Amino acid sequence: MNMEQINAIVNDIDSFVWGPAMLTLLVGTGIYLTFKLNFRTWRNLPYALRSVLGKDARTTKRGHGDVSPFSTLMTALAATIGTGNIVGVATAMFSGGPGALVWMWISACFGLTSKFAECMLAVKYREVNAKGEMAGGPMFTMKNALKNKSLGAALGFLFALFTVLASFGIGNLTQANSISSALEQTFEIPIAVTGVGLTILSLIIILGGIQTIAKVSSVLVPSMAVLYVVAGLAGILGNLSAIPHGLYQIFMMAFSPDAVGGGVLGTITVSVMNAVRFGVARGCFSNEAGMGSAAITAAAAHTDDPVRQGYINMTGTFFDTIVVCSITGLVIASSGVLGATAADGTPLKGIALTIAAFERFVGPAGAYIVSIGILLFAYSTILGWEYHGEKAFEYLVGSHKLNIIYRVLFSLTAYVGATQTLELVWNLSDIFNALMAIPNLISMILLADVLKAEVERFQPILEAEEAAKAAAED
User: Which residues form a coiled coil (predicted)?
Assistant: First the structure.
């Protein structure tokens, strides 16, 4: 069997695991839990956003933990705000049309609850390791919370195993490859130079553990997100006349593509099913709600209540999809380049589509904005995923003492990713990412009553705090 045949088999498996059954389980779990919790996650989103943007999220005086609630959110966002926000949105809109963006939004609305649930449970059932650090995540939730201990142990092992494998793939190799490709195309930097630089930078920060990763993420993530959003908004404001038609295409092609040119957009033939499929798939892939990865970081937070941290961490889905992905999607839909072809006659897609859209809106600087965005987003993803993978590795081996081995191997892997074209790794990474979600979603469904009880317990506390703040402002 040659490499081409292996790639074809892996591609078929990838298409299956990210098919209708997986997407239904991901979004369906979010829908079920949203109803189960009486839409508290939606109703309390303003409270969650105020908590993140206020001083309380930056304190380490409340409860126990390793880093501040804000730092854990930024580390989790570091892992989720990545190539999916730039390349993933373009891929979804190329494959499913502009309407795919609406389905990304819809999946994100229910993803808020999934992200809240996994992070809240991770804090509630976390442990302290022999080094005195917090150790938590879905694997500890499964081990400590499920009444059937054999089932909990099996699910925890599978989740940790798939997380370690995914950390090297989607969290490292693919991100490093995106960085080296972008820097080579835009700035003509040799991929070997990028590979060495990435390895050294990663090693310096990763060896410092969660404290260093959190500090870097707390500066890098807000900075890069603001830079990208401001650049996108500047382009949108400079081309306001194109926005109404872009919004029209986004909403009409999400539900009725035949109303817009018979469902044909340049080289793209659009259908509602494709808009749903690619919008939901890329949305879940981008914000990772239901995957369980963000819960590993959430468990490190200094907090006095797991529900409080759950609300803070769920805003990651809002910032990732509703804010950052929307900027990319609106620029692409309004620019008029969706469905266009390159000079060689091939359809514009992926990173080339996003670059063309930004160039149309902000001029030649668009290519630099997108390339720098890819560099910062993908590098932060490497840092965030290292922590996820390290804690899963620690769970598998039963000790923190071997973490140094994982850190060094993970850093060296960045060089391989930057210098090799690894189509097989991209597909395998996609598969491991999906397989992570299955045990996590099962455990959340089984613990739905625990989630409901915790949310209802915290609600009077939340309302009292809000009332006290309102009184203080008056």
Answer: none
